[in-house]
Amino acid sequence: MYRLRSTQQAMLPRGPTVTASDVPWPPNVAGAKGVTQMDVIEPIRKRYSVRKYLEEAVPEEKLLRIMEAARLAPSASNTQEWRFVLVTDEARREALCKAAQGQPFVREAPVVIVACAQTDQRVMSCGQCAYTIDVAIALEHIALQAAAEDLGTCWVGAFSEDEARKVIGAPDDIRIVQLMTLGVPAMGSRPKNRKELSEIVMYEQWGGSKPG
What are phi and psi of 165, to 5 degrees? Predict the structure, then answer.
């Protein structure tokens, strides 16, 4: 689904080159002097839905690294249909809060990411719409990089797409898939309530048990 032949990749339009000076991403090379590696599982465990934020701005260098994580996400046929509007203006955050059924943390978060898709609404051969899945993958990249930066996020699906579109001035053909709040958490993480692996993992077929 996400794999392209080399000839197909060569035909894709190329965007502007992003250099190290554009995105201050710290090196993460195994064995490099002074470099500490973080296992991917660490920010996964650290991430939780933050609905209370401190009144602190998100540093620009952290925000750039977070959005770079989104840029590197995979997408169906490498179409990269996602577009992100970063809202920091207080009045716009208030308007997005109203569009999101008055959820106060949408207003309180210093950044609200409006996750959009500029899409032809292509349906993959599996029957699923590509852009919603691709935007979701990119948003989770955002959430995990935010956790690695000691910041918090929350997925927001309870909102009016039409009202959110008015707030950011997006054209009618742009889909708004999700909102995501971003900022410094006002409190620590809490234990996750998740099902056991034995309840969600099967082997070889539906209902199949682990061999041996």
Answer: -60, -40
Tokens standing for residue 148: 């690695």
Per-residue confidence in pLDDT tens, the chain, 212 aa: 333 333 334 333 444 444 434 555 443 433 444 545 658 999 999 999 999 999 999 999 999 999 999 999 999 999 999 999 999 999 999 999 999 999 999 999 999 999 999 999 999 999 999 999 999 999 999 999 999 999 999 999 999 999 999 999 999 999 999 999 999 999 988 888 999 999 999 999 999 999 88
Sign of the Cα torsion 103, 107, 112, 117 reads: positive
Considering only CA atoms, give the Rg of the chain.
19
Instruction: State the fold for domain 49-185.
Output: NADH Oxidase (3.40.109)
